[in-house]
Fold this protein.
Amino acid sequence: MNDNREWNPYGMYAQERVFPWLYPYGSQMNYWNMWNLPERMEEELDVKRLRELYPLMARRLQPYVEEVCARLEYPGSMMYDEYPDQLSLLKKASEVWDLAKAGESFGNREPDLKDVQDLIGVLLLQEMIRRRRRNRGRFVQTVY
């Protein structure tokens, strides 16, 4: 762990949060939103436990997938379309891969986009499903 940019599966967000033990479910605002919803807190903890079982490359890419999906959380986003199109998903997958290449040091065994595109696509769709389920009814599109 000499290089600060080297990936650590046990402390992915250690640099970002000052007191990570205070808010085990994400940021402080996320914790406040789930305060009176113990079933949602248990669901988030379950997702966190199951993500620890991901293969190494999936664990490395997951924070970048979450970052791209966080940018897509607004009303009218392609994430909340009834039928998201394949081209926009491929563009988001390449955006995730660009972020991962900039943030990770893969060394001399860096894969190409075509090698990890399917994995990124699955992670992206899984995160989109999770966020759509969580925000169901929040971004309802009205038709005039």
